[in-house]
Predict the structure.
Amino acid sequence: MGYRKTEMWKTIDWFTIILYMLMIVAGWFTICGASFEFDSMSLFDINGRPGSQLMWVGISMVVIFVILMLESDFFDVFGYLIYAAIILLLIATIFFAPNIKGSHSWLQLGSFRIQPAEFAKFATALAVAKFMNSYGFQLTTVKNFSITLLLIFLPMICIILQKETGSALVYFAFFLMLYREGMSGYILLAGVCAVAFFVTTMKFSDVVVGATDMGTLIVSSMILVISFFLVARIRKNRMALQIMLGGTVLVYLAAYITSLFIPVNFAWVSVGLVGLAIVYLIYLSLRNWVWHYGMIAVFALGSMAFMYSVDYVFDEILEPHQQIRIKVSLGLEDDPSGAGYNVNQSKIAIGSGGLTGKGFLNGTQTKLKYVPEQETDFIFCTVGEEHGFVGSTLVLLLFGAFIIRLVVLAERQNTTFGRVYGYSVASIFFFHLAINVGMVTGLTPVIGIPLPFFSYGGSSLLGFTILLFIFLRLDASRSSFSSTCIIYSRESAKII
């Protein structure tokens, strides 16, 4: 529904725009701190990174104006077309992009370079929102859920084929939106468990106590505990839980007594208990016609299969540089001059900032270029060194307020399209923040994703800007639509 453009400027969420501008300004100064050299070009020279980023800020301002001048219906009507165009661009990138640091993710025309993966995020969010806004849509049906996953995973697969794993992993953020829209919590639990099982198996795979493989014991025990918890949620049959718990205690007690005389591999005992639990759950499902028991059995069986496939996935599927990064992150290897160099130097830079930091342009780790990629993926270490704990906390609080505000805006949308897109935007920003800061501080493996509005890069800045302001445009039309409905209702009442 069209309305005067002047009204849009009244209904747009200026609080979010102020937060955006604060992050843009803080990000530019941080890029200056990370890349500026006193004896070289000025801060505003476009041949330098601060000047180049400032140019992209100007381009982003123009794009913002264009987005806000478009009718909000434009993004719904052309959502699939935008998505298809980006998919074709991603496919073209696989074949025509040059090899840059082992990745084929940048299209280059002369001195101009662009990374299509950064624009695939908003295109995917638009396509998913448009599909989920279709008449009679229910996420719980197999067909709708499968198509939704296809829309999400198609660009993800294209990006993986570009050897850009970090950017591809961002698409898992959409599962947070899907959970809000009615996706079963069991699916989200399965994802969390997969990460926990992978990390635990890798961490303790070589740890053997007596005759027991500790990795297998811990993971199989986790599977048992989670299965017990899920059975407990089915309150109609407490007897099933009591039988499973009682049987587990008796078997472990028998195994302990046996170990006093001969060596016992408790990992095998635990795996055997999981097997018995699976058989018992299938029996309960068939006897009582309660599908929850069957689903728990599938979860336990799938978890066991995943546990035994971890070594194969790690050794045969992951690239060598990814393997070493995971091992360093988990403390399985110490490689301070190799894969662990970036993270170690980043920690040193952040720690050297102390409480209030060394001051703008005074970071020694930054100025001496100890941290590779410090203007892009590791930009947060510059914040820590120059502005210390106080500055880092303020940046995190700024991002926190920004993401919370996006959630508030998403929740107040009066269309499924606006709500789904809004939650997609909030989820993507949250994922980038959590992984980037975790990567810089050594909490997560180094996978190479930027910190929104802070990391240097025109594609990144422009992609995040488009992602955000499409949502703000949708939210602005929501306010106008509500006002129009109120006026229409009042006029109708007068006529009556």
